[in-house]
Write a structure and sequence with these properties.
58% helix, elongated, 265 residues, mainly alpha
């Protein structure tokens, strides 16, 4: 049964080499002699260099730690302990554990520098298994915080760039903007159908212009009179400020300079 299991675990080409052997022990011994590298120093050197050169490089912690574990297992096979004293075995086990802890911490990504320093500050140093658990906990915490900040940033960006709804209705308390413009005279706040130049000027509009004309005459007369004794130009300027729009351009119907507002009726 064991012999069948050994042969079935081989590829077809290898199975043909050991198929003629009669017992499982013969198969095992033949495979060991053929493929075992024994105490190959070059292989141990290669594995140690590989362990020191292994880096996380953005991969998951489980993948990085699993890669190191495979290397360490191969080293254990090639370098079995021959110590008999229990104290020596414990001391050597601690040394190996510390070496592997250094290998693991040295290859971590830079965002885990803080937890690496915390692990190295412990006395005594934890096992590589305990250190792996601490690093995983810190990595999960960082991932959670990063995800939360990303959501907050996205919400803020959405709020800042949220389009302002356009509506034809003014907001409460806001006066509706009159966008009408006459195609005849070019003035705003009325249309061609209600243009005074076409339909005639109403009486109230003429009266308004006459009042404006009289107002201008009063200001002009006041400005042309000589200043009383003791007065100053500053007093004259104060009087002129009482009657604004005295420099408006003339029109067929003198009055307010805001011609566009005359049509708001």
């Amino acid at each position: 049964m064991v012999q069948c299991w050994l042969l079935n675990s081989m590829t077809r080409n290898l199975r043909a080499i050991f198929l003629s052997l009669s017992t499982a022990k013969e198969v095992w011994d033949a495979v060991t002699q053929t493929y075992s590298i024994g105490k190959d120093a070059s292989k141990l050197y290669e594995l140690r260099c590989k362990a020191l050169a292994t880096r996380q490089n953005g991969t998951s912690l489980s993948d990085y730690y699993g890669t190191l574990q495979l290397i360490w297992q191969e080293i254990d096979v090639l370098r079995p302990s021959k110590m008999k004293c229990s104290d020596d075995v414990a001391a050597r086990t601690t040394e190996i554990s510390n070496e592997r802890l250094y290998d693991f911490l040295a290859g971590l990504d830079h965002h885990l520098d803080r937890i690496r320093g915390q692990v190295l500050a412990e006395d005594p140093l934890p096992s590589v298994q305990a250190a792996y658990a601490q690093v995983c906990s810190e990595a999960n915490r960082q991932a959670t915080m990063l995800a939360g900040s990303h959501v907050d940033g996205s919400a803020m960006t959405t709020t800042l760039h949220r389009p302002v709804p356009r509506s034809g209705h003014p907001k409460p308390g806001q006066k509706e903007l009159d966008t009408r413009q006459c195609t005849h005279c070019g003035k705003k706040k009325h249309t061609r159908e209600t243009c005074f130049e076409l339909v005639g000027y109403p009486d109230w509009w003429v009266d308004k212009q006459e009042k404006g004309k009289e107002k201008k005459k009063s200001v002009a007369n006041l400005a042309s009179q000589p200043l009383p004794h003791g007065s100053s130009p500053h007093m004259d300027q104060s009087a002129l400020r009482v009657f604004p729009n005295t420099t408006s351009t003339s029109s067929p119907y003198p009055g307010s300079s805001d011609k566009g507002a005359d049509w708001s009726w």
